[in-house]
Amino acid sequence: MTTPNDCNQKIIDEFRANEGRVGGMFEGARMILIHHIGAKSGVERVVPLVWFPHDDGQMAIIASAGGAPNHPAWYHNLRANPKIDVEVGAETLPVVATEVEGEERDAIWQRVVAAAPGFAEYQQKTTRTIPVFVLSRLG
Length: 139
Prior knowledge:
The protein is α+β, with helices and mostly antiparallel strands. 31% of the residues lie in helices and 31% in strands. It has a 6-stranded antiparallel β-barrel. The radius of gyration is 14 Å and the shape is globular. The mean pLDDT is 94.
C-alpha cells in the first residue's frame, strides 16, 4: 500500500533531482520543500508544498490538507517552530513562517483560488477555515 509519506518522498526525490521541478499532478506548479520541526517530537521533517508569490519576494503556502477535517501536521509544527528552511529550486533558504488572518488572509486566499481553483474545492470539503502562511526570508 502506498502511503502519503511514500508519495511525498517520490516528489521530494524528483524535486531534488530536477532543481525544483516535478511532474505528474504538480507539473508546472511552483513547489518548495519545507523543513519543519515536530512540535512534540522535535524531529525535522520535510514536506513538498505548492507556493504562491506574495509581496516583496515572500511566499504564501496553504494548510489545506486536501480539504481534510484537520490541519496538516506541518501546520502545528510551523506554529510551534516558525523559523524553518525551505528548498526553492536548487537553493535552501532560511525563512520565518507567519500565519495570516482576517483581511490579509482573505486577499491572499482570493489570489490563490484564482491561480489554483482546486483550493476552493478543498475549502468546500471542510468546515475549518484553511490557514494561510507567509514565508519571509531571514537574513
